[in-house]
Every structure is written in C-alpha cells, then in structure tokens.
Design brief:
The chain is α/β, with parallel strands linked by helices. It folds into three domains: about 260 residues, HUPs (Rossmann fold, 3-Layer(aba) Sandwich); about 170 residues, Ribosomal Protein L25, Chain P, CATH 2.40.240; about 120 residues, Ribosomal Protein L25, Chain P (Beta Barrel), CATH 2.40.240.10. About 25% of the residues lie in helices and about 20% in strands. It contains 13 helices and 25 strands. The strands form six sheets. A seven-stranded mixed sheet has the order 10-23-24-25-21-22-11. It has a seven-stranded mixed sheet with strand order 19-16-17-18-12-15-20, with no helix packed on it. A hairpin with a 6-residue loop joins β17 and β18. α2 crosses α11 and α7 crosses α8. It binds one RNA strand through α5, β6, α7, α12 and β19.
Length: about 575
Amino acid sequence: MTVPNLGTGERNESSTPPPNFISTIIDEDLQSGKHKTVITRFPPEPNGYLHIGHAKSICINFGLASAYNGRCHLRFDDTNPTKEETEYVETIKESVRWLGFDWGEHLYYASDYFEQLYHWAEELIQKGKAYVDDLTADQIREYRGTLTEPGKESPYRQRSTEENLDLFRRMRAGEFPDGSRVLRAKIDMASPNMNLRDPVMYRILHATHPHTGDDWNIYPMYDYAHGQSDSIEGITHSICTLEFEDHRPLYEWFIEQLGIYRPQQIEFARLNLTYSVMSKRKLLELVKEGNVSGWDDPRMPTLVGMRRRGYTPESIRNFCERIGVGRNDSWIDMSILEESVREDLNERAPRVMGVLRPLRLVIDNYPEQMTEEFDAANHPNKPEMGSRKVPFSRVVYIEKDDFMEEPAKGYFRLAPGREVRLRYAYIVQCVGVVKDENTGEVVEVHCTYDPETRGGSTPDGRKIKGTIHWVSARHSIQAEVRLYDRLFTVPNPGGDRNGPDWKSCLNPASIERIGSCRMEPCLASAEPESRYQFERQGYFYVDPSDSSPGAPVFNRTVTLRDSWAKSGG
RNA sequence: UGGGGCGUCGCCAAGCGGUAAGGCACCGGAUUUUGAUUCCGGCACUCCCAGGUUCGAUCCCUGGCGCCCCAGCCA
C-alpha cells in the first residue's frame, strides 16, 4: 500500500488487515495454484460522491491487493451517460488518493471496452443468444412476470439472426429513437432468478458520453458490462456487495457463452452506520434540498464531508479494519467511528485552550496591569511535542459550564466559595458573582488567587479536584467554532416501517455555530487543515474553506469522552 | 407463496467436531494540573428454536422461526 504524504500531516502507515472470509478464499486460491497473483478492483459509478460505505469497499479491495502484493484497479463504471458526469471522476479519484490508496497505472473506464462489448454482443446474436426486442419498457415489465409467476416470451424473441444483426447495427447507427428497442439476452423467461429472464443488454440512448462523446447511440447495461470488464482486466477476485449475488449467474452466463476468462465474484455485506444514511439517492436529496450545505458538509458521511469534519484517512482506514468484513446485514455503531478518530487524534493533535461559551472571571487580588506567561505542554504524554507560552492576566474567560451558582451533586468545578485550578496558572477561589439585573444570569465571576500555587501546583499538598481551561481576556482572540453532532436523531432513520419518514428524523441540533469563542493567541496563526484538541472539549479541524488568515474557523470533529456529561452531569 | 442470502454478548466479529478470540459499548478500580489519555479488572456454562448423528456439535443432518435482497431500457 502506498500512503502518499499529501502535506496534511498524515502519518505513513503500513498494515495488513486481519484475516476474513475473503482473504481465506484468496489463501486457498493461491495455495491451490488457481491464481498466482491477486488483482482486485474498485468500480465506482461517476454519478456522486464517495461515502464511508465506499471506503469500506476501497479498504477491502486495495487492502487485499496490497496484502498479497497484487494490484487494485480503479475503474469507473460509466455505462449510463444520462446520469454520469466528469466532475465526479476527479472528486472520486481525489478521495481514493486522500484515503491513502494508489491505483498506479491502472485507471480504467468501462467505456474503454464499449467496442469490445459491442462485438461480443454481435457474437451472442450470431449464436442465437441475444435478440432485439421491440416491446416497450412497460410491456417488458409485464412480460417479465412476478417473483412467483414465470414471465412470458416476447413475440420478437424468435427473430432471425440476420434480422437481429441488422436491427442491432441500425440501433448503433442511431436509426431508432430512444427507448424504441433493446437488445436482450435470450436466457429463460421462467427462471426463478429474475435476472435471468432475458435481461436487457443494450438500450438506445442518444446521449453524449463524457468519455466517448457522440460515438455511441446505444449503451450497455451495467449487468452486461461489468462481468466482461472484470474479465478483460484479468480481475482474480471481483468483490462486491451482497445485492449482486443474484446477478452472479448472469455474469457467469455471459462469460461462458463468450468463452472468456471468468473472475471469481465474492460478495460482502455493505456498511450501515447508525444515525446516518448511506444511499446516494438520500445523500443527493439532502444536498439538493439544502438540509446540508453540500456534499462536503461536515455532517455528511461522504469522504469529502468527513475530511472537512477533520477525520483523518488513518482513522477511516482503522475504522474499516475494526468493523471487519462479513456477510451479515449489520448496523455499525457510530461510537466505533468516533472512537477511531479519537484514538488517532489523541496521539497527534496538539492541545490548546479555547473557551466556547465565555464567562468573565475577574481575579480581584491580581494586579490590574500584570501579565504572566505560563508554560503549557502541547501534549501531556508527549514531551517531545514541546510546549508554548500562554499569557495570563487579571480578567480571564472560562467556560460557562464550569461555573454553577448552585452546584449539582458531584460537580467539582467552580461555585461560590469553591476552589478550582486554572490549568497551568493558579488555584482560584470564587468570592462573588455579578448578575444581569434583568435576567438574573451570572455574567461575571469574582475570584481571588493563591500566589503560592503558581503554575497550578499545590505546595501545601492540598487536593484540587477540578481543573478548568481559560483564556486571558486581553490576549485572547475571537474565533468561530462549529459544533457538529449526528445528522439524525434515531439510529436507523426511516428504518421503522410504521415510524416517521427518514427526513423527519433529521437532527435540528446537528450543527451549532458559535461566533464568540475566545482562544489562546497562538491560534491566530492556526493553519487551515490543522488539527487541535481543545482541552476538555474535543478535537477540532481548521476549516479550509471558511478560515482566513488570522481568523480561523474550527470544526469540531468529535468530542472528548465525557463521563461527567454521560452520568447526567 | 418463487429464487438468493443471513442468524455467535447491547453493536460489530473470530471460530470450520474437542468443550466460546478481539474491538466498540457498558460497569468497577488505580494513576492523572484535560471528569481526557493510560492502566488493571468485570462483562455469552452459551452460539435463533426444536429434534437427530456423535464419546463429544456454535460447527454435521432434519424441521421450524426470524431478518435482508431480487419484478430499472439504474448501478
């Protein structure tokens, strides 16, 4: 596996995924001599953006190729020019690269094989295995039968080879209007497998294709193109999701009729993530209807969205490794994804102090003009990450949550009469509050500090239970922070047949923008795409699109674990 | 009611006839100037159910039950 350094601070990493049922099959194939090398492929349709579900497939395909020193092709399944666009091709390539994979020279398009596919179609006609059907789409549907009743044969099924060939060539030549005829495989209209009831191979589409331009007036169906594309590329293990299992007999039928190399298809269960939706259709709908700001909205499970949220490629790869590969329909708990980023970011994100919801704290006995600088570690467990100076003065901001006039049971932050440690600075004791005359809300807290506790130490050995973060009012900078939460309020949006529609499960609190946050001064120069841990808050990513020099915008990637909040605090 | 799959801890997931790995979640407890991290410890006498084969079955057989997918000129 090649993990290119894209200059975003990503680590290099090489790992072999744990064994699973697919690698077991590959082991057997290698041992039996059926294959000498492993060639897989990731075959996206360029009609949308890649999401975390695709990441699973990418990790499986590229991961296997790398583990066995084989290779993985990137092939765009561009068989439907009415739905696909070139803009998606570049974004998809970039996402695969960002995830850390490299297809080398092996970039392909199904459209590269259109001519070959066409010749094979003529071959099938010649063998009496395919025919041109004049039935309308509706009629074809009627003739197909149902799950429990066999279909009936089209009246055009017995056309002569000559007529079929003539018609098919004229379809290619553009003599007929869209939808007027199709080429069908002649298999079995009574097959219990619907895919074998004379499936459509070609449809007439007078559309301009991103790659082949106006060369074609007919386009192959995915089912006719996919298997042969794999065959052409010499794919040894064609890995796809479960819903294509029923199509395998069809792919193999084409391969057999044509007498060409047969790749082995292996199906696995697609990824479902709780509190999320994964279908392209639904994601597109969210984008189009403005429920999110775009494909790269940090709440989207798209790779571009997750990237903007602050997820690292490593964390996503690690996630894919953790969830495993199997054939059970499963719903992966969001916490596994979250824990994957935390694990990564905990190691690499420098710590910093930022106050999201500022509350003024005045230290009555601290000299008005005085300023001190305290040394703050960039990482508590990694001295090699160094430290920085944080300015301190008489007025600081603390988090609103870190003060309670009437402290709840078990609360050990600041409250009237109580002591708390201002991280790296001093122990302070609350001696009074100032309230808003009208609302009664505490707008300012007054404290005294203990000069003996400089740096936050307690020379007398007294135990201070609470340590809170702060920022000097005079020295801090203002910044915007965006707090993101799960996009849906229920684990399986729309999954309950009798429950609410998936879109009514959207979480209204999935984003909260706070423009009045106060941060320690070093953050004025925070680089776009860099990551920090705001102590006691979570991990944040400097938004590359909305930040400007000196005015960073921080996206919360994920919160820190919070056993106090969890316990009901 | 046709065909194809799947059923091991709350969520994933190993296991492939010899007596239930691991991760996430959860619950303790230690360390901690992040209620973070780290660290220890706990967490399925049981593998959808019922029969059968076997000295022995989560793994084999039979019969149930439950869930998912398939009736696009989408992929």
